[in-house]
Amino acid sequence: MHPLRSIAPFAALVLALQADARRQETPPPETEPVPAPAPAAAAPPTSAVAIDEKLLAADALARAGLVLLRDRPNPSADDYRSIALLLRVVQRLRPEDPELARFEYQAWLAAGDEVRATQVAYRLVKLDPRDTVLQLRLIAARLAKLQDADQRLAAYDKLLGTEGAALDAAIRSRLALDAALLAREAGDEQGFVDRLTTAATLDPTNKEAAALYCTIFLDRTSDPQERVDLLAAVVLADPNDDAAHANLSAELLRHGAYTAAKRFLDRYGQIAASAGIDPGVEELFEQYLLVWLNEGDDALLDRLTGLENTALSIITQQRAEMERQGIEPGPMPEPLIPAELEILRLALAFAQGDSEAAQYSAQRMLWRLEEQDDALRNRRPPYDRTTEQDAVRFENESRLQGVMARLWAGLDIEAVEPIINQMVEGPSGRWLEPPAEQRLRGLLALRQGDLDRAQRLLEPVAPLDRFALMGLGMLAEERGDRQAAVRSYARLALEHAGFAVGAAARRRIEIMLGKSLAPTPTAAALNEWSQRFAPFLDDLTGNPSSFMQIVARHDPSRVDSYIRPLLRVSLRNSARIPLSLGPEHAINSRILLTPRVLIRGEEISSIVPPEPIEMDRRLRLLPGETLEVDVWATRAGLGIWLERFADTVASVRWRLIQAYRMGADNRFQPGLVSVTAQSDVLSRDPIPEVTDPAAIQAAFATARGRSLFDALLQGMMLAAATRRGEEEQTTQLRLDMAAAIAQNMPQWTEFEQTYAIAIGSRGGFLLDNTSILDATRDSTSPFVRCTLMLVGYTDPDDPGLVRLSEDVDPEIRELAQLTRKRLASGEPAAEEQPVDPDSPEALDDEPAPGSEQDLLNRLEQP
């Protein structure tokens, strides 16, 4: 078969599935918001609802495996492989369950098994034909099988042509980017550019394509508007990318568009703050520089004074703490700010012609540099891990900063030449490059009054050195040539707008001329462009719901213990532009579900772990488009608790946190440009309460269907409860329950047996007791076998487990081999152990208020 033909069947399948999905689905509204869920109508009690034993067995088995994986602190590849195999067997009972298939897919990926992950991906695409993420992965996997680069390029071009025209543009865009990179590897520069252009054009949310396109073409144009447009495309590809905003700001600043530059630098700072990132010295410098350029001298001084006040407050608190400890704090130190920020005050003093203020600022810089040098010499933080090579570099950089501060302010000039000589002829060899040395000696000559020598030294290096150019302006002022000084300062302001010397030169010109400088035509045009460009971006952090919305509702909203409640999560693009979807993308697809759970009037939310979900089913969402995902939110921890108290009314409401992060208080918080939402309330009706062990054990012999499942839950709840002073009775109760289950198991269906073992493990029925294991050891049911491997076997050489490791069923055989390997390594089975009556926690007379044991004690009160 021709290699290209292997692509065609899959592409045709994807297109057919998409067409079928379009026929079945109603397109999302363009502007209508996602409707809030209507209040649930009163529903009759669900105790009479028939149960599906097959699905209950499947969920119980899947939950046991998922809880096992969650409880392992560092799951291995074998752990993920085991859960994937288990879920594959479970899906024999739930073949059309997309969530179980997705769990299996993720487990194979975590296990590093791309082949079997791809097999599951095919099933998932059939279950969700609009999943563009998996479609792209499958197409890429097919293309990767073509060994020859020419064949792969031809296959890419075929899909980018008419044969793949019906594929989603987001998929074609990413295929075009892959093809572009392949063409570049082959040395086809024009092919690379053409395909990259296609990638960037097909989908503006393809950030990788936009960034690469910008990188390539930014070096090919000097036109300010073209350069800004290239960088702006990266911003639109991912409005949450703070670096994209910072890069655009720097480009606008380079062209003197200070107003526009400040807009995007403000966005940068707001996005970083939304992610919990405090600005560093470099970011503060850029912010303060633009404050100066846009708001004037006083605004800059206010910012710098605010920093000093913060430093003073910290010093005062530290001294007060030392005094409380009886330590003499010594003289009050000067509150200093970083030298990289103090240089702005020095620049302002120079611009204003205030030599006294300039020397005071320079002296503060030198004090701060001395502090840094002392920390470096003694290897105190942040230099405690600095290498000798880096220490030499830091020391010389500090010397250079100090020399420049002295020369700019005219402070302590006699100390400058020895420092220059040390950087040129020191024990570590020459550190200062000849042009930099020439600039420093030229500025030194200027300060010493040797103007002719200063001019000879500064003029040759001024075209490439901003401080040399500044020196020429200072030299012209010394000679009284205001026109030449203005020319030097103007060039400095235009060519080095992003530096303190550039801002100082601009302000110096204004003071010399006595009037404010108007922006250049280029700067004015860029400032005007900025006002028109995506004004909605200004709401990005302050009102993220204008970009995306989340709605969650239960279906159904009232259930009993035998109905799996689904939480339908809707994620909508409410912005005016397409937005990429995925982890760390414009619309972050990672959402944390934190439950608020009420059982018997007690809130147990603090001991129920949150559930993370991933909604990466699309590569992007168009404006107004909504993605809906049904989530089995009670699949693990919460499901265990709801079963643990199945005989009482319970209610659940979820808080959804998008792009979540861990805060300083170890609580989950909204992350970078994220939204939060609350679901409606899920009500769970109880099963009948039975506290007589004999009645429950009798039901094992006579009950069938729902009544038997009720009895199994009731028995588990009785056995799992540990009441102080009743430890021996509880142990005997577990043994009796296990014996009754084992005696009656042979007459139960394989689904009832699977459910009984999975539920019984949480009641301690398998604790130091082999009756249930002995009763089911020879079972031919794959579901019973899987449950036993999960929670029953403890000996890798158990004859039953050895037989399973040679079973004809490939999934059972491999799972048994992995189980034997795990048990041989000393790891315990996955049984949910009840609280040990002899543990310190159980013997604690006063469990901590709000602790798990405290809540259990209150919930288990008769």
Structural class, from helix and strand content? Answer: alpha+beta
β-sheet strand percentage: 5-15%
- Name the shape in a single word: elongated
Distance between the termini: 73 Å
> What is the count of DSSP helices, taking H or I runs of 4+ residues?
36
Average pLDDT across residues? 88
Helix percent reads: 55-70%
Q: How would a textbook summarize the main sheet?
A: 7 strands, mixed
Radius of gyration: 35 Å
Low-confidence stretches: 1-47, 831-844
Number of strand segments: 15
Can you describe this structure?
The protein is α+β, with helices and mostly antiparallel strands. It is 57% helix and 8% strand. The strands form four sheets. Strands 2, 6, 7, 8, 11, 14 and 15 form a seven-stranded mixed beta sheet that branches. Helix 2 packs parallel to helix 32 (782-791) and helix 21 (451-461) runs antiparallel to helix 22. The longest helix is centred in the middle third of the chain and has 28 residues, at 297-324. It is elongated, with a radius of gyration of 35 Å. The model is unreliable at 1-47 and 831-844 (pLDDT under 50).
In brief, what are we looking at here?
With 862 residues, this protein is α+β, with helices and mostly antiparallel strands.
Describe the secondary structure blueprint for this structure:
Layout: H1 7-24, H2 53-71, H3 77-90, H4 98-111, H5 114-127, H6 132-144, H7 149-160, H8 169-185, H9 189-202, H10 207-218, H11 224-237, H12 242-254, H13 258-274, H14 281-295, H15 297-324, H16 339-351, H17 355-377, H18 388-409, H19 416-425, H20 434-447, H21 451-461, H22 466-478, H23 482-495, H24 500-513, H25 521-532, E1 548-555, E2 558-559, E3 566-573, E4 579-582, E5 587-588, E6 590-599, E7 602-603, E8 611-614, E9 620-621, E10 626-631, H26 637-644, E11 650-658, E12 661-662, E13 668-669, E14 676-678, E15 682-684, H27 693-702, H28 706-720, H29 727-744, H30 750-762, H31 771-776, H32 782-791, H33 799-804, H34 810-824, H35 840-843, H36 852-859
Parallel strand pairs: 2-15, 4-5
Antiparallel strand pairs: 1-3, 3-10, 4-9, 6-7, 6-8, 6-11, 11-14, 11-15, 12-13
